[in-house]
Every structure is written in structure tokens, then in C-alpha cells.
Amino acid sequence: MIQLTHLNLNDQTLEGFRHRYLPVSSVQYHPEASPGPHDSLYLFDDFIRTMTHGE
In what side-by-side order are the strands of the sheet with 2-7? Predict the structure, then answer.
């Protein structure tokens, strides 16, 4: 039921997941922080799409 979406490149620990059927997702880092302002923009786009369309 859970799909892994982000793994740490250094130690292969889980940093993100998404539920396959429910509108639930999470990341274990600060997507608004560095290295750049646009690197994690897709996370916010997905969140907005889920909130407005229920997808």
C-alpha cells in the first residue's frame, strides 16, 4: 500500500513515501530549504493538486 519515493543516497534510509490509494505522502527533509528554491517544487505542486482536485 505504501510506495517509497525518496531514499537517502548516503545510507539508503527512507526519506519519502506515498500511499498508493489515499492522498497521503511525506518527506523526511525540508523541501523549502537548500540546495535550491526549485529542487522540490514538484512536492508543492502535488500537494496543491491533491488539495484542489483530490487526486
Answer: 2-7, 14-19, 25-27
User: How confident is the model over 5-33, as a mean pLDDT?
Assistant: 88
Distance CA 37, CA 43 (A): 12
What is the pTM for the complete model shown? 0.71
- The per-residue DSSP string of 1-55 comes to -EEEEEE-TTT--EEEEEESSSS-EEESS-TTSSS-TTTTHHHHHHHHHHHHH--
Nearest alpha carbon to residue 27 among 14, 38, 39: 14
Q: Average per-residue pLDDT in the chain? A: 85
